[in-house]
Write a structure and sequence with these properties.
heterodimer, A: 445 residues, alpha/beta, Four Helix Bundle (Hemerythrin (Met), subunit A), Rossmann fold, 434 Repressor (Amino-terminal Domain), eight-stranded mixed sheet, 20 helices, 56% helix, B: 308 residues, 12 helices, 51% helix
């Protein structure tokens, strides 16, 4: 899977931050050192890395810790946000013209995967109800035209070619042909070239001047190293790209190019090409990609859920109670319900970075059963009993056990657990850190 | 169509290498020269900057740290205090790391060329064919990339350019069957060198790696008298993923060495230093363009010289 290596390394860095209440600048810097190494090893451009680390560190050190989560997670959240921003924020679509044909020009280095991508793009647009035409403008590589013809026939899209004619003449004739045959999209497959080859770069400028294309997409091999930004920058300077397509994203690539290019050129990544089959192309979503890279795709969802489930007012009340040592079984019940609302233990765990492994070891049924019993026991108590468990004598306990379908032993067990957590909280309060743990579910199941 | 490429005049081997690598040289040398000018002494900042320069050449973090450590050691041992002289030491270290036995194929030899998609395998094989043909060897090419559209056609054109025979079945054929025929043909024609093109495959696709193993088995079984050399073609613009490519191909088909392509751009291909360091796979050739003479025997000293 793409990004796995990067994901593992980032998670290792983050694991050192999680579980910390307050983070010092030193903690963050240390973690950022590891993040830096991970990004560099993933081929993210070193200048982009430098900039990224600075941004995250500045924000993390300056920002107040987000109320409902611990500081480590806040840092992860910042990293995720900055990473999404680095890749361009939102998904960017193809621009179609009101005056067809829409012209899409594919350019890039040799071997980036332009011809295959041309086929994939044509196939995708065909499915979306467009009437695309492929244009073979790679007149240099032996058999490139033949390759495009084969690819075109596989996706049922016609290929316009004029052999080894001049590319500018080819595209001029192709546009006329597209208009005549009512094709509304024209995808031009150009020859691979080095960004420093002036003659061939001029040729691209000529093609651009001839066609006035809506889209000039740079195809970049996802495995490209530090060079990716140089390539993208030069192509962008000469042709003013409208976007980038990442190819071969199905390797075990760590996707450094994906992270760097947008940061350096400001041009969005529009598609990711992920396999050898011609339908394997997908729109590029920076936010989802960031999740994937961080291997914590749902932490934000979890944060959302936490925000939804935790009533701010109740949380403040709870905190007050804890400070005054008035935490009751009612509050205990409340906390159980919050966990429920957030989707249960295993679900919550699986949304945490690295939590998948733990979640798979948790017996969801067992946990739910035990939680259900606890709930039933508390619900079988009178409000007075819930507020003051001290009044529970043998007779009351028998009644509660019968009412909740449990045994007196189980009722006693719960009371003991409750007492323990009360003790724990007392200690926390004494330590002067009572403010935060109202949201921490400090119970064993 | 090859006429398009004829516009550049022929040049000497070393000149071509130098020219091909010039962009690489310019950028790194310039950076290091600037550095040497800025820093009057060898402090941490100096080494940090040096580290960044190597990393930006795709050398990789771990290998860069190793190189810097070695450099510091050398600098200490030689009591060197002048940043200007550090460049020479750095050059020596890199050349030393990249040292390897040259590839001199004895007849008969089978060269199996592998690599991920789009690294330039077919072009490289065309150039290899030309290179050994010019050396008077009896060369046969085999088109065992039966997957990519028009790959066989592309290699056929190269065979014509080189003036060497080609064994091909066409798209969709069993690659192992192509290799089987090619081996028979090489035996019958008493070829010195059989060069086999294979389909590009992402190294994480297990079934494709199995196919490659099968090809290797066919060669080993049917042509036991031949020396088999497996070269992995690596795109010079590839980053740290190059190491895992080399590792997986080595594990599957016992790769002997690397051919580093596309060095005529600004790419530095520094990941080969990591590959050499971690997997002990040397570089045998470099590709510096699309013309048939744009293939150079790799020379560690020239490489280090050309880079720094």
């Amino acid at each position: 899977m793409a990004f796995e290596g990067l994901t593992d390394k980032l998670q290792a860095a983050f694991s050192k931050l999680s579980g910390r209440g307050k983070l010092t600048e030193k903690d963050v810097k240390e973690a950022m050192r590891e993040v830096r190494m991970a990004l560099l090893e993933a081929d993210v451009n070193f200048l982009v890395v430098k900039d990224f680390i600075k941004k995250v560190t500045d924000r993390a050190v300056g920002e107040q810790v987000f109320d409902t989560l611990n500081a480590g997670q806040t840092v992860v959240k910042i990293v995720r946000e900055e990473m999404t921003a680095m890749m361009g924020g939102t998904h960017s679509r193809i621009e179609f013209t009101g005056n067809p044909p829409t012209v899409i020009m594919l350019i890039g280095l040799q071997g980036a995967g332009k011809t295959t991508l041309a086929g994939k793009l044509a196939g995708m647009l065909l499915k979306q109800g467009k009437k695309p035409m492929l244009v073979a403008a790679d007149v240099y590589r032996p058999a490139a035209i033949k390759q495009l013809q084969i690819v075109g026939s596989q996706v049922n899209v016609p290929v316009f070619e004029m052999g080894q004619d001049k590319p500018v003449s080819i595209v001029r004739a192709a546009k006329k042909e597209a208009i005549r045959t009512l094709h509304d999209v024209m995808i031009v497959d150009t020859a691979g070239r080095l960004q420093i080859d002036d003659t061939l770069m001029t040729e691209l400028e000529d093609i651009k001047a001839e066609l006035n294309p809506q889209e000039i997409l740079l195809v970049v091999d996802a495995m490209t190293g530090q060079e990716a930004v140089n390539v993208a920058k030069t192509f962008d300077e000469r042709l003013n790209l409208t976007g980038v397509v990442l190819s071969k994203l199905d390797g075990d690539t760590r996707g450094g190019a994906a992270l760097s290019i947008r940061a350096v050129t400001g041009k969005p990544i529009k598609f990711a090409s992920i396999g050898e089959k011609l339908d394997q192309i997908e729109p590029f979503h920076p936010d989802r990609m960031a999740s994937r890279i961080l291997g914590m795709g749902d932490v934000l969802t979890l944060i959302d859920k936490a925000v939804e489930a935790v009533d701010e007012k109740k949380a403040v009340e709870l905190e007050q109670k804890l400070r005054k040592n008035q935490f009751t079984l009612e509050d205990f019940l409340e906390q159980f319900q919050q966990v429920r609302k957030m989707g249960g233990m295993a679900d919550m765990l699986s949304m945490l970075p690295g939590g998948n492994k733990i979640a798979s070891e948790v017996d969801e049924d067992e946990v739910n059963k035990s939680m259900g019993k606890t709930e039933a026991i508390i619900r079988s108590m009178t409000p007075k009993e819930r507020r003051n468990p001290g009044i529970l004598n043998a007779s009351r306990k028998r009644r509660i056990a019968a009412g909740s379908g449990t045994t007196v032993q189980q009722v006693n067990q719960l009371l003991k657990q409750f007492e323990q957590s009360q003790q724990m909280m007392k200690q926390f309060t004494k330590m002067g850190k009572g403010g935060k743990f109202g949201r921490k579910f400090p119970f064993k199941f | 169509m090859s006429e398009v490429n004829e516009k550049k005049e022929k040049k000497g081997l070393f000149a071509r290498l130098k020219e091909g690598m010039s962009k690489t040289r310019e950028s790194i040398t310039h950076a290091i020269d600037t550095l040497a000018g800025v820093y009057k002494e060898l402090d941490d900042d100096f080494y940090d900057e040096l580290e960044m320069i190597l990393i930006s050449a795709d050398v990789g973090v771990a290998t860069t740290e190793k190189i810097i450590d070695k450099l510091k050691e050398e600098v200490r041992a030689r009591r060197e205090g002048n940043p200007e002289n550090v460049k020479g030491i750095l050059k020596e270290i890199v050349a030393d790391m990249m040292q390897a036995e040259p590839f001199n194929p004895q007849s008969p030899t089978v060269v199996l060329v592998v690599g991920v998609n789009g690294v330039g395998k077919t072009t490289t094989i065309g150039k290899l064919g030309c290179y050994y043909k010019e050396q008077g060897k009896n060369v046969i090419l085999a088109a065992a990339d039966t997957f990519r559209a028009a790959a066989t056609e592309q290699l056929t054109i190269w065979a014509q350019r080189a003036g060497v025979p080609i064994v091909a079945h066409g798209e969709g054929a069993d690659p192992a069957a192509v290799v089987f025929d090619a081996v028979a043909s090489a035996k019958a024609k008493k070829a010195d060198l059989l060069i086999i093109d294979t389909a590009g495959r992402l190294h994480n696709k297990t079934h494709l790696m199995e196919e490659l193993k099968k090809i290797r088995r066919v060669i080993d079984r049917d042509f036991p008298e031949a020396t088999v050399r497996v070269f992995m073609v690596l795109d010079g613009t590839t980053g740290q993923n190059g190491v895992s490519q080399a590792r997986v191909f080595r594990d599957a088909v016992d790769v002997d060495g690397i051919i580093l392509t596309k060095l005529d751009g600004t790419a530095k291909g520094g990941v080969v230093i990591s590959i050499q360091e971690e997997l002990k796979l040397p570089v045998y050739f470099i590709g510096v363009g699309e013309q048939k003479e744009d293939l150079q025997v790799f020379d560690p000293k020239d490489y280090a010289e050309a880079i720094f």
